[in-house]
Write a structure and sequence with these properties.
The protein is an alpha+beta fold and 206 residues long. The protein is 40% helix and 20% strand. It has one domain.
């Protein structure tokens, strides 16, 4: 069991020692984490969310200028789906991802975490930051994983990465669209629909 005695002037949203026991550690000293956070924010934009307050999402310009596509998946995915994502991430980032909490209007620097590129690493980080928008980036910035903190993860990257992470994009797109329609039926309107419409021009569906 790993223990951390790391201290930081940056805020956190989950106890450091608890995350350390899960293998999730701060990403260097405060200066290093501030640099990581500032770079993460170049992937993020603020927008008026469906629930009437500003929220953050993955920036369309940040995605398109890299020539990437996106796939929307479920935050609460099956173990098989999470393992496919983790395997694809490990292929490009064998050890860990830099994970930032990008919630707020505007988001403020907080502890950036070094999350193992494993199913358990991804699941634990997202579970410990429910309700918070998050962003995970590999060292080479070759893809991005944006968690909306509620129901969706937006995967962005080259098509070969996306197809490795989601082996059947068409089926995933059908499932996500059906879920969004059901949320609209229940709630009148949901941010799921807004997300799907926003990223539709660059969504990989086949």
């Amino acid at each position: 069991m790993t223990e951390s005695h790391h201290t930081s002037s940056l805020p956190d949203y989950w106890p450091i020692d608890d995350l350390a026991r899960r293998g999730i550690l701060p990403h260097g000293d405060d200066d290093a984490m501030r640099r990581e956070f500032a770079e993460a924010m170049t992937f993020i934009e603020t927008y008026p969310a469906a629930w009437g307050r500003p929220a953050t999402r993955l920036s369309m310009p940040a995605v398109t200028r890299r020539g990437w596509s996106v796939i929307a998946t479920f935050l609460d995915a099956s173990e098989e789906e999470d393992e496919a994502l983790a395997t694809a991430a490990r292929h490009r980032a064998p050890h860990d991802l830099a994970a930032s909490i990008v919630a707020g209007n505007p988001p403020v620097p907080s502890i950036v975490w070094r999350v193992p590129s494993t199913t358990h690493g991804l699941r634990h980080f997202w579970a410990c930051h429910g309700g918070k928008q998050t962003l995970m980036l590999p060292p080479d910035r070759g893809f991005a994983l944006f968690g909306d903190g509620e129901q969706l993860v937006i995967l962005a990257g080259p098509p070969d990465f996306l197809r490795a992470a989601v082996p059947d994009p068409a089926a995933m797109h059908r499932d996500i669209a059906a879920h969004a329609a059901e949320m609209d039926r229940i709630n009148g309107h949901s941010h799921n629909t807004d997300m799907l419409r926003h990223y539709a021009p660059i969504t990989l569906t086949t």
